[in-house]
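Repro:
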Amino acid sequence: MTQNRSRHEDADAGGRIAFFLLGGMIGAVAALLFAPKSGRELRSDIADATRKGVDQAREKAGEYYEVGRERATELYTTAANKAGEFYSTAADKATEIANTARDAALKRGESIQAAIEAGKRAYAEEKRRTEASAILEQAPTYYEEIKDASKS
């Protein structure tokens, strides 16, 4: 708010100075036109007043240019600094997100690998058990055959 007020006051001051100079020039021309002088003297006075007015306008324009250039440089520097801060913050956040994603992927990969290993162990254990029971089922059962024969 203060910055806007300062700009507004600068614009008002510049306008006042411009109107003051314009009024002074009009007043000088009017005074010369109504003064009892010869045509040559009058033209010379008008030319002098015009040169003075142009010189003053150039000086003021140069001053306004310098003030504007300095202000533009300040704004550029501020914007560049803010952009650098924004880039730095964004880069930090992107790195943080990438690290979090990488860690999550590693953990997930580890848990998937652990599940695969557990599955392999369970398969091997079940296969061993099945093979052992198949061997027991194929074994001759002499005792039961003798028992059945004695009953008949």
